[in-house]
Each structure stands twice: as C-alpha cells, then as structure tokens.
Amino acid sequence: MKLQVDGIKEISGNTLAIRHEPVTPPGLQGSVRETRSEVKEIAAKLDIKEEIPRVCRLQTARNNVPDSTEEEYYRRAVYVPYLDDFCNSLKERFESHKETVASLQHILTEFCTKTDFYLLEAAFNFYEEYLSHKEVVQSEFMSWKEKWSQEKSENLPKTAISSLEKSDKTFFPNIYILLKLLAVVPVSVATVERSFSSLRRLKTYLRNTTSESRLNGLALLSIHRDIKIRDEEVLDKFASVPRNLDFVL
C-alpha cells in the first residue's frame, strides 16, 4: 500500500512539474509539441484535419482564448486545463486520504510488529464510529502485535485478506474490522463503472419498471459471467417460494 501511495505522489509531482515549466522550449512548449506530434499522426490516419474552432468576440460557451497558431490555441485551451484537472483529480482522489490509508496499513502483520499504536491513530480517528473505545483498540493492537512478534517473518501473512483469514473475530473484533476495511479499499473505479455500464444496458426506457430485486439479479448475472450457475439451484430457489400454482417439474 505504501508503494501505491508513494507512486501516486510521484505521478502528481511530475505532472505539477510539467505544468509549471516555462512556456519556452524545452519546457511546457516542448511537452505540448511532443504530444501534438503524436496526436497529428493519429489524426492523419483518420483523415482529420487540425483546425481552430471559430472564435467570436462575445463567445462565452466555448474556450475563447487569444492565440496566433494552432499549437498556442490547443496549449491554452486543452493541454494546460487538462493538466490542471488531472492534478486536481489526483489530489482529490488520493492525497486527501493518503494519510488514512498509510496509517491503516500498519494493521498488517508485516508492519504491526515494527510499529506502535500512534501510527494507527489516523485510521482510528477516521473509522472511530465503527470501533470500540480508543483504549480498547490500543490494547487489542498490542495483543495483535505480540501475537505476530513470536512468528517467523516467512510465516507472516502479507496481505489484508490473508491477515483477515488468520484473525480471530472473537479475540480481535476491532482488528478484524480494520482488516476488513483495508481489504475492501477500492484501488480503482473499474467495478463501479462496470456496474453502471451494465445498468445502462439492462434498465432501458422499455424496461423502466423493472423491480429492484430483479434488476439487481440481472446486473449481477451480467457482470459476473465467470460464475457458473447450476440449473438445479435456480429451480430449487423458485420452488421454495410459496405460489398460487404448484411448481411441477
């Protein structure tokens, strides 16, 4: 997890460095020319001509930036705004929560044997409503740390899921919750976007009255196509529900 956080920080730093380079070559203008050259190659294959959108004096609905060449227009209207938006997106999505995520990883057996509870406080403060009192969590963490301090390093679980499997929910209820939260922290929006795409295919204007339970079932079938479904289980499910008509096979 630390490597991912550091990687995002490095990407954000490099992007900001490009954004604040001087406009003159080989700074920002050099980056624009390199990108523009690649785009022009693709455009040539698709028979797309490079041109500046029309500009009028009172135009307000489009980018109306002053320019003298196509390169200057696209630098001001597209390239620089994109870099700004990209940096803001990275900051909003990752940097605002990096302290919590970096703190939460100290619950892993690989780190807990080398750290103290104060490194976990940021995660505790963020998820406080799901946990017991601070002193209880702290004593539980110390017991968790002692448990794995007695194990050889090669026997330590390396991931949140493997640590969760080795965690006793009865003896370590708060640790179990924190590990579960760490295991489900999304690394991308791919799963969410996939569900949105499936819903668009399923809930069309012709099927707008589909019930929620049926829509959820159809969406799960569409998304998780790799899961094999036995016909016998489906029939048993239908037969178990009371009906006015007898379900005869």
From TrEMBL:
It comes from the Eukaryota. Residues 152-226 form the HAT C-terminal dimerisation domain. One of its GO terms (molecular function) is protein dimerization activity. InterPro entries: HATC_C_dom, IFN-induced_PKR_regulator, RNaseH-like_sf. Pfam families: Dimer_Tnp_hAT (PF05699). This is Repressor of the inhibitor of the protein kinase. It comes from Araneus ventricosus. The lineage of its organism: Eukaryota, Metazoa, Ecdysozoa, Arthropoda, Chelicerata.
